[in-house]
């Protein structure tokens, strides 16, 4: 059963030291709004891959492509502003460390910054993720193990103020993908305990700060390996 170090939004000073090596994990997953050099340090110190989605305070990473190691934007060679070596799962479905991860970054639109989307825009981005996940399942029989987002679903761990309202379309994402885990950030605990929530059979986890989690991976025949 793969184990992940999940991080979001708040730097944990103890992790930005060699103490992070005590966590025996297979993968680092990041749900946004963290310094990219922090993510690079975690991946390098643990010698593990890193998968992330951008948060609403991250730089605009749209439009970049990596072709045989060369980063381009709009077909022109460009410097990749994201974390070196990490996999951007935003609006994608990626297979890393034995896990299939569907990603959808950003928050509800509340200002003019990057990585902010209206409900309609996010629903349109989600449709691409759902099509990719369906095609992958038809090809190899495997479902999505983790739904990685920056924002939570509407009414499921979000807040009432406009910048921290969740996305209604994420309920459809959970219903269609049926991942065992949905990991999100964006909602700071401010000293309170943020309890895990459930949407159907999916466990919804706020990973602001950090969490270490075992993830039941799909066995390729539509079943999950039990804990």
Description:
This protein has helices at residues 36-46, 119-140, 169-177, and strands at 3-8, 27-30, 50-52, 64-67, 70-73, 76-77, 87-88, 92-96, 99-104, 107-108, 116-117, 146-149, 181-184, 197-199, 202-206, 209-214. The chain has a 6-stranded mixed β-sheet. The protein is α/β, with parallel strands linked by helices. It is 19% helix and 27% strand.
Which descriptors apply to this entry?
227 residues; alpha/beta; six-stranded mixed beta sheet; five-stranded mixed beta sheet; 3 helices; 19% helix; Metallophosphoesterase; Calcineurin-like_PHP
The rounded Rg comes to 16 Å
Helical amount: 10-25%
Instruction: Briefly note the structural class of the backbone.
Output: alpha/beta
Strand content: 25-35%
Largest sheet: 6 strands, mixed
- Pick out the low-confidence regions: none
How would you sum up the global shape?
globular
SSE layout:
Elements: E1 3-8, E2 27-30, H1 36-46, E3 50-52, E4 64-67, E5 70-73, E6 76-77, E7 87-88, E8 92-96, E9 99-104, E10 107-108, E11 116-117, H2 119-140, E12 146-149, H3 169-177, E13 181-184, E14 197-199, E15 202-206, E16 209-214
Parallel strand pairs: 1-2, 2-3, 3-7, 9-12, 10-11, 12-13, 13-15
Antiparallel strand pairs: 1-16, 4-5, 5-6, 8-9, 14-15
Protein name: Metallophosphoesterase
Organism: Saccharothrix hoggarensis
InterPro entries: Calcineurin-like_PHP (IPR004843), Metallo-depent_PP-like (IPR029052), UPF0046_metallophosphoest (IPR051693)
């Amino acid at each position: 059963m793969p184990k992940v170090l999940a991080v979001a939004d708040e730097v944990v000073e103890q992790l930005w030291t060699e103490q992070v090596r005590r966590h025996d994990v297979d993968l680092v997953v990041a749900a946004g709004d963290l310094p990219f050099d922090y993510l690079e340090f975690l991946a390098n110190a643990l010698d593990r891959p890193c998968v992330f989605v951008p948060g609403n305070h991250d730089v605009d990473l749209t439009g970049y492509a990596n072709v045989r190691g060369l980063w381009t934007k709009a077909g022109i060679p460009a410097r990749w502003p994201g974390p070196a070596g990490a996999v951007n799962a935003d609006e994608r479905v990626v297979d890393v460390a034995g896990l299939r991860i569907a990603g959808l970054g950003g928050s509800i639109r509340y200002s003019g910054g990057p990585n902010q989307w209206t409900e309609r825009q996010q629903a349109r981005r989600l449709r691409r993720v759902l099509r990719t996940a369906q095609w992958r399942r038809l090809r190899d029989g495997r479902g999505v193990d983790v739904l990685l987002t920056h924002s939570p679903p509407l009414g499921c761990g979000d807040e009432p103020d406009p910048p921290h309202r969740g996305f209604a379309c994420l309920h459809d994402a959970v219903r269609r993908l049926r991942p065992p885990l949905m990991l999100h950030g964006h909602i700071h605990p401010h000293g309170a305990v943020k309890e895990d929530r459930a949407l159907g059979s999916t466990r919804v986890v706020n990973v602001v700060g950090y969490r270490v989690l075992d993830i039941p991976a799909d066995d390729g025949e539509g079943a999950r390996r039990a804990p």
